[in-house]
Amino acid sequence: MSDSQPSTGEEGTTTTVITATTHLTLPAHPIPLTYEELNPRSKPEEFFGPIGTFGITLLAPLFTYIFFYTCNDAVGCTPTTVSGWKYAWSLVGNFPSSAGYLWEWKAFAVYLGWYAYCIVCWKVLPGDVIQGNLLRDGTRKNYKMNGLYTLILTLGLSVGVLLNPGGIELFTWLYDHWVPLVSSSLAMATFQALWVYGYSYYNGELLALGGNSGNFIYDFFMGRPLNPHPPFFPSFDIKTFNEVRPGMILWLILNISCACEQYLRLGTITDSMWVVLTFEGWYTVDCLIQEHTILNQMDITTDGFGFMLSMGDLTWVPFTYGLQARFLAFNPVHMGPIYTSVVVAITLAGNYIFRQANNEKGNFRAGKNPKNLEYMTTERGTKLLTSGWWGRSRHPNYFGDWLMALGWCLPTGFSTPLTYYYIVYFVILLVHRQIRDDGACRHKYGKDWDKYCEKVPYKIIPYVNIEVWMRWGERYGEI
Ligand SMILES: NC(=O)C1=CN([C@@H]2O[C@H](COP(=O)(O)OP(=O)(O)OC[C@H]3O[C@@H](n4cnc5c(N)ncnc54)[C@H](OP(=O)(O)O)[C@@H]3O)[C@@H](O)[C@H]2O)C=CC1
Ligand SMILES: CC(C)=CCC[C@@H](C)[C@H]1CC=C2C3=C(CC[C@@]21C)[C@@]1(C)CC[C@H](O)C(C)(C)[C@@H]1CC3
């Protein structure tokens, strides 16, 4: 089976080939023939251009380390005091346990083993082959969707280990080698990003429209190739593989390791740890149940695969999204029934909005409209929902996602602001994503998008017009 096929629909070798639930139609213009026409030069404008992308390339890994050195059982979690920072700094390269060693070959070998295991699972476990969206060269790629089976197998093996004598202690090996594992994932992420960047100059593959500026720093970060694959292994799509497997599943495993650490220290697992473990774990499970939906997301359809996604997927997601559980491992919080109920209610509300909104759009895009929602038809032929969750704001799913994120941070109590980094980072990520998506939709739908925006003026939070607030703020400022 070839990786890139004409859009006629063919049989995959494993199981049926299913076409991604998209409404995309063939471009009206003739498909350009030359490589240069297909891959035009882009302007380095996103993230404040080369300077901004250089800054994020350095700062994102740096923050991953800072989150550890300023928040661990040796220093506590006090990045708010000068003495806290000084003490944390003195421990870099000099940490009392292997959890803070900057590099360890054994951890690197374990990490490579984990990555290889994920590839083997992708190869040998069964799964539907889904045909992706139409690419601008007129072809479609096939994707094997078996992330959920990889997760089920991994969880099954984990339970097997945990039920054996010494299994809990074995699991805490991950907690005890946190920084060496961070460094290993970062090495892998950097290697991948460099390799796909270099290889994209040789194999004539389709480039991402936003990652072909000719500026190394910018293109390395944004991602030059759109759908990179290793040589001689064209059916292995590096981007979709990275997006939901080695990082997302590792996040769940690291959380289990933190829970084991807490159990060894306390002899029990606190309510706060259970809440974090359950809800963050469910996020991973839900993401893998819906794995096919990533084919319609901008990371897959538009963005290239570069350091942003490579580092984001392999390092940022598992090691910083796991901060809450790691904090609770050495700093247990007992929430009690009332606080637990409040946190659970917020998280469930977030999950409900997130899932309902994503399902409404997913069903609608698949040609189903079980709730009989209102919609408008654009000149392009695409339909846009104007009632239900998508009539309440233009990104209700982001709002639900953020509420869930709040529910993951609240169990850590209020002794440190650091564990709340996630909701701050997530606001920035979602607002930036909203602006990018709005721009892309305006480009796609033209004045139809303006009509939709008139009908649904609220950007993320239903019925809350941030722009009105901003204008009101400006007027207040003038007074
Ligand atoms: N935890 C994390 O770190 C992250 C989580 N996420 C989550 O991933 C999920 C996917 O996010 P993302 O890919 O950014 O975007 P969305 O799932 O919100 O999809 C946006 C697209 O939906 C289509 N659309 C917009 N409005 C309508 C409408 N009214 N009716 C029908 N279709 C519409 C448009 O595409 P078209 O018209 O072409 O179909 C638009 O480009 C979200 O739930 C988000 O919260 C995302 C990033 C990071
Ligand atoms: C600091 C830095 C370099 C950040 C890069 C941003 C990345 C962390 C995010 C960009 C898009 C992401 C997505 C997910 C995780 C975070 C990153 C990689 C995602 C896999 C989370 C789970 C969701 O269900 C998702 C599959 C929709 C999502 C896809 C985008």
TrEMBL record:
- Report whether Aminoacyl-tRNA synthetase shows up as a keyword of the record: no
Bilayer topology reads: Multi-pass membrane protein
| Catalytic activity from the UniProt record | 4,4-dimethyl-5alpha-cholesta-8,24-dien-3beta-ol + NADP(+) = 4,4-dimethyl-5alpha-cholesta-8,14,24-trien-3beta-ol + NADPH + H(+)
Q: Where is this protein found?
A: Membrane
GO CC entries: endoplasmic reticulum membrane
Keyword Chloroplast attached: no
Its pathway is:
Steroid biosynthesis; zymosterol biosynthesis; zymosterol from lanosterol: step 2/6
Q: Which UniProt keywords apply?
A: Lipid biosynthesis, Lipid metabolism, Membrane, NADP, Oxidoreductase, Steroid biosynthesis, Steroid metabolism, Sterol biosynthesis, Sterol metabolism, Transmembrane, Transmembrane helix
Q: What is its main location?
A: membrane
What's the EC number here?
Answer: 1.3.1.70
Q: A GO biological process this protein is involved in?
A: ergosterol biosynthetic process
Regions crossing the membrane = 47-68, 146-166, 178-197, 336-354, 402-428
| Gene Ontology terms for molecular function | Delta14-sterol reductase activity
Which Gene3D superfamilies does this UniProt record tie to the protein? 1.20.120.1630
Tell me where on the tree of life, at the top rank, the source sits: Eukaryota
Tell me which PANTHER family the record gives. Answer: DELTA(14)-STEROL REDUCTASE, DELTA(14)-STEROL REDUCTASE TM7SF2
The entry's family comment says: Belongs to the ERG4/ERG24 family.
Name of the protein: Delta(14)-sterol reductase ERG24
This chain's source organism reads Kwoniella mangroviensis CBS 10435
